[in-house]
Amino acid sequence: MDSTRPLEVLLAVDTVRPGHPNRSVAMQPHKQQSVILDLEEYKSILVMILVVNKINKEPNLLPNITLGYHIFDTCSDPKNTLGYVIKILSGEKEAPNYYCKGHGEVAGFIGESSYNSNHALAQLLSLYRYTQISYQVTNPHLSDGKAYPTLFRVTPADRVRFAALIKFLQHFGWNWIGIITSWDGSGDEEAQELSNMMSQHGICTEYIIQLSSDILSDAQTLRIISKSTSKVIVVCGNSMMYFHFLAYPLPPGIKDITFIFPPSWIRTNNVNYVYENFVNCSFIFLWPRENNPNMDVYTKAINFSSCLNDPIMEDLWIFTFNCLSPNPEKNIYFKLFDITLNPCTVTKDLSSLYTYITPASYVYRAVYVLAHALHEMYMKKNKSEQHGFQHRLSKYVRNLYYTDPDDGEIYFNERKEVPTDLILKSCSFINSTHSSYRTISTIQSPDYVPEPFIDMSDPSFWKTGKIPISRCSDPCLPGSRKKFGSSRHKCCYECVPCSEGEISNISDSENCMKCPDDEWPNQKKDRCVPKVVEFLSYTDDPIVTVISTVSILCCLLTGLILGIFILHQDTPIVKANNRNLSYLLLVSIMLSFLCVFLFLGHPVDVTCMLRETSFGVIFSVAVSSLLAKSIMVCIAFKATRPGSPWRKWMGAKLPNSIICVFSLVQVIICVTWLSISPPFQDLDTHSYQGKIIIQCNEGSVIGFYSVLGYMGLLATVSFIIAFLARTLPDSFNEAKYITFSMLVFCSVWIAMIPAYLSNRGKYMVAVEVFAIIASSSGLLGCIFFPKCYRILFRLDLNTKVAFH
Questions:
Q1: Which residues are CB-contacts of 321 (< 8 A; sequence separation ≥ 6)?
Q2: Would you list the domain boundaries of the chain?
Q3: Which of 412, 524, 515 is nearest to 479 (CA)?
Q4: In angstroms, rounded to a whole number, what is the distance separating the alpha carbons of residues 773 and 593?
Q5: Are 81 and 112 in contact (CB under 8 A)?
Q6: ∠ CA 349-352-356, rounded to 5°
Q7: Which band of pLDDT confidence, cut at 50, 70 and 90, is reported for residue 32?
Q8: DSSP character string of 55-114
Q9: Using CA atoms, how far apart are residues 472 and 482, in angstroms rounded to an integer?
Q10: Given this model, what pLDDT does residue 644 score?
Q11: Between the CA of residue 136 and those of 114, 148, 150, 332, 367, what are the distances in Å?
């Protein structure tokens, strides 16, 4: 037996048939060898003995049946475990697989605390169909009901703790974790299972290291931890042996490491001299401290001489109280640890050695589970059946349900585990021998949902006085997202700003979200805000005030000119230029100035339909009037010749017909456009970032350009006719002014087209409004200003004599 290993035990409970004495086979140590004591394992032994004796005294539980036990030290060696199981099943003097029924039958097995030995035990007992109750090993691998049909556990598997651990890591944003496992390999599969579960929740494992007694390996472990960026280490496995090799001497680079321990690592008595600096302010998951049986009979008023018949208790006294042993070989062994031994004659109280939270209470539960299952089986047993019950015992354990006054409801869930609460505590070490625990959260069965974690902003919870940061990369703030690079860990990334139009409102977002069409990211890109609404507003745009003022003034000026023409309607100039056509043209120009207001303000469907159609019809009437004027000028010149056939075309019918026909064509185009696909209000959310352009959608592009094209055709024809008639001999030839007005009109609209197409939103509308005002002003100025000048300031030219 390796004298440096902690004491491990294999417990087995057997029944003795009525009439047979209670038989207790003592623990089997190796001859004349000592161990480094594990008080918790020894306490488990004492608890089992205490419970077995208690059950044997209970009249209502297993009446006429006496329980006994075997206890073996396996040294956590699966070979020893299998050998001792064969001895228990076959007898020490019998050959393997041969069973002599001359003594009590073996009902089941309890133990042990080592995963490797438990695993080997489960494999063997599954073949023989013997029931096995595990009180400490929580490795998820043993949850396979098909591989281990007779294995039951009185505590849940590690997956329960892992789920709570992941919640705890996420609570503090720790996603870059180191894992160390115990020397005996019990934490290897546990570490892999934990690493896989963490990766599913975005938590990465930087390294997995197994503890060792090898000096070179230990130095390499310290270098890895010192150079690592993770500040949180999760400990896996059952055994703490060699942990002190890692913790002492303490490297400066890992003083700020926070450890998270499993329940089995609560045994601080062996390495407490390094805990004050190394694992202070760390965390541990614990099973509730239930059913701690009264140990006074084993711990009160004990003297050394009474323990010499128990090698474990002898070692306990030597190791704890420096007692001199009668065995000189043991004294030499302990002196190797620089322990000065003295004779012990006084009575000691050992209760202080059992103040730690231990798994002993679950040994209590395991023995009672086996006893209750045996009781149920014996109560239902067929009288003709005398032996072989152990092969049916697992069925009774599986369906077991009872209520213990100290332990509550006991039953096995679908994973063959007794649901048990789990407690996360913070451990603080006042000095090398005193520690305190504060509850962080309780994970309640059977759902195992952690309660809210307590406020841990108090500096006393942390080594450095503040919450450590354990991340591979700094967190990506809202407004940015993760950009993963070449690292195989998804926890290592760069932070890049969200693209245009996207936001992230949480830290460490992997993807940015697009804002709705009517919203846009704010400057930090962490939330969407309403887009700026853009249109030619009366309240917000100064240009609207200018346009409105100019339009009103031009409209008033046009009305003034109309008044002048009406007032001087009998003068030669007004008559000579077909005053009815002049009136119609002035009214059309006035309406064109007023239709500008349809383009201003918040567009709606009605204004969108009216603005283009009214503009097109009004200008068609105006241009048709100019066309009629141009035609009438040509006819008037030809009709002055004697006997000219053009005289019959003189009069009001022809110009009126021209205006009606050509205007009616535009009306038909507009009505068709409105009937098929009319203009409507449209929200342009894509042309400009952060803006919603409220505009009028033409509906039918063909209809829109048909209106403009027809208006352009009229203007071109009118221009050509007026241009050809400009040289006709007359003292007042209106064709010249029509030519200039059409030249201005066409120039404005030709220049407007590229400017119109190159703009969006309110600027596009402003270009169109400018073209309307400019072209209307051109018509008004070129045709009517010279006439008004003659009417008002050159009366001598407004006579028949001057006219002819």
A1: 304, 344, 348
A2: 9-155+357-399, 158-286+421-461, 301-348, 480-527, 542-803
A3: 524
A4: 6
A5: yes
A6: 150
A7: very low
A8: HHH-TTSSTT-EEEEEEEE-TT-HHHHHHHHHHHHH-TTSPTT---TTSPPEEEEE--S-
A9: 12
A10: 59
A11: 8, 16, 16, 34, 13
Taking CA 123 as the corner, what is the angle to CA 91 and CA 112, rounded to the nearest 5 degrees?
Answer: 70
Find the largest Cα–Cα distance for the chain: 163
Prediction pTM value? 0.62
Structure tokens that stand for 701 in this block: 């592009």
For 9-155+357-399, which CATH class?
A: alpha beta
Between CA 71 and CA 78 the distance in angstroms is 15
- Hey, which bits of 662-778 come out as E strands? 680-684, 691-697
Burial of 532 per CB tally in 10 Å (0-12, 13-18, 19+):
exposed
In percent, the amount of the chain with pLDDT more than 90 equals 13
Token digits of residue 317? 């006294």
- The answer to whether 410 and 404 are in contact (CB under 8 A) is yes
Query: Which DSSP symbol is given to 21?
Result: P
User: Dihedral of CA 243/248/250/255: which sign?
Assistant: positive
Tell me which CATH code domain 158-286+421-461 carries: 3.40.50.2300
Of 357, 291, 364, nearest in space to 135 by CA: 364
DSSP 649-677: G-SSHHHHHHHHHHHHHHHHHHHHHHHHS
Q: What is the CA radius of gyration of the chain?
A: 51
- In the CATH hierarchy, which fold is given to the domain comprising 542-803? Rhopdopsin 7-helix transmembrane proteins (1.20.1070)
Please report the DSSP string for 768-779 in residue order. Answer: HHHHHHHHHHHH
Which residues on adjacent β-strands are paired with residue 20? none
Kind and range of the H or E run holding 347: strand 347-348
DSSP state of 260: E
Give the whole-angstrom CA distance, residue 424 versus residue 430: 19
Asked whether the domain spanning 542-803 has the same topology as the one spanning 9-155+357-399, the reply is no
Q: What is the pLDDT of residues 131-186, one digit of tens each?
A: 999 887 887 778 888 889 999 998 888 888 898 999 999 999 898 999 988 776 66
